[in-house]
TrEMBL record:
It comes from the Bacteria. This is Transcriptional regulator, LysR family. It holds the Pfam family LysR_substrate. Gene3D superfamilies: Periplasmic binding protein-like II, Winged helix-like DNA-binding domain superfamily/Winged helix DNA-binding domain. Keywords: DNA-binding, Plasmid, Transcription, Transcription regulation. GO terms for biological process: DNA-templated transcription. InterPro entries: LysR-type_TF_proteobact-type (IPR058163), LysR_HTH_N (IPR000847), LysR_subst-bd (IPR005119), WH-like_DNA-bd_sf (IPR036388), WH_DNA-bd_sf (IPR036390). Residues 14-71 form the HTH lysR-type domain. GO terms for molecular function: DNA-binding transcription factor activity; sequence-specific DNA binding. Belongs to the LysR transcriptional regulatory family. The keyword DNA damage does not apply.
Length: 309
């Protein structure tokens, strides 16, 4: 209540709307022209001018038949009010420009490290006026509480209030270093994997994959647990020969090409969670969001790109 009273008091002391009307009338030399510019009737213009004259305690215009002229007080006030409105206009334009100049992306750690960090340079080359800031973490952010423009999330794509576009289907399979496989004479059947250390055996992906591979009793719970926190870290551990990781092969084609990792079985599984680009539906037409959406869908999912909304 106190805040409301204060704001009413402030608006009485500083009649911004009336100043806007005064500025237009002084610049155009006519109440009628000021009304046309501001979309107001001549009566409304006269009322606003009277309000500001009462506020100041002096007349600002001499009213003559078919003509108005600024009084001495009006002549002194007019250029300063014009300058003030120009400053306000510049401030808003600058804030709008700064908002359009920076793109804040929140992404899951694995997608950020394994795909986005490698590819984002091409987006920046195409859009040199947009400065990209990338924050990688797996926490689901609240767009209403955090300064983020777009996010890349893992899930089903059904977040209320958010527009979502599927970027990549998530399919996983065991991967390991060829040197590690040799230590047990090679990996020929899914059960051979159990001769090796399983990186993060509590990961639900493992039980899904073993079940699909026909191994119903892998006893994953009885194995020493390790939680590295992100698929990218598990992949690095697998490259170092520390065990078998369950990974998305699309992310590790470089390691496969270099002989650091390989995929022993063709079988891939999915738990229904895919990677999605999301942003508030209300901001879908913001130029920087549209530019990033078109770029990333064009890279990853050209078919979806054709009907992105």
């Amino acid at each position: 209540m106190h805040q409301e009273n204060l704001s009413m008091k402030m608006s009485k002391q500083f009649p911004l709307n009336a100043l806007r009307v005064f500025e237009a009338a002084a610049r155009l030399g006519s109440f009628t022209k000021a009304g046309d510019e501001l979309g107001m009737t001549q009566t409304a213009v006269s009322y606003q001018i009277r309000l500001i004259e009462e506020n100041i305690g002096e007349p600002l215009f001499l009213r003559r038949p078919r003509q108005i002229a600024l009084t001495e007080v009006g002549q002194h006030l007019a250029p300063k009010v014009t300058e003030a409105f120009e400053m306000l206009h510049d401030a808003v334009a600058s804030a709008r420009g700064n908002a359009e100049a920076a793109l804040l992306i929140n992404s899951t750690a694995t997608f950020a490290s394994q795909w986005l960090a490698r590819e984002i340079g091409t987006f920046q080359l195409e859009h040199p006026n947009i400065a990209v800031r990338l924050v990688a973490n797996d926490a689901i952010i609240d767009f209403n509480k955090e300064a983020v423009d777009v996010a890349i999330r893992s899930g089903m794509g059904d977040w209320p209030g958010l527009a979502s576009h599927r970027l990549m289907r998530v399919e996983f399979t065991p991967m390991l270093s060829p040197a590690l496989a040799e230590t047990v004479g090679g990996v020929r059947t899914p059960r051979d994997l159990l001769k090796l250390r399983i990186i993060d055996p509590r990961d639900p992906w493992w039980s899904l994959w073993f079940r699909a591979a026909g191994v119903d009793d892998p006893d994953l719970d009885g194995r020493p647990g390790s939680r590295l926190g992100a698929q990218a870290f598990e992949a690095r551990a697998a490259v170092a020969g520390q065990g078998v990781a369950i990974l998305m092969p699309e992310f590790y084609s470089d390691d496969v090409a270099l002989g650091r990792l390989y995929q022993p079985f063709e079988l891939r599984c999915s738990d229904g969670h895919d990677y999605w680009l999301v942003y508030p539906h209300a901001r879908r037409n913001a130029p920087k969001i549209r530019a990033f959406r078109d770029w990333i869908l064009g890279k990853l999912d050209p078919d979806t790109h054709r009907d992105a909304h």
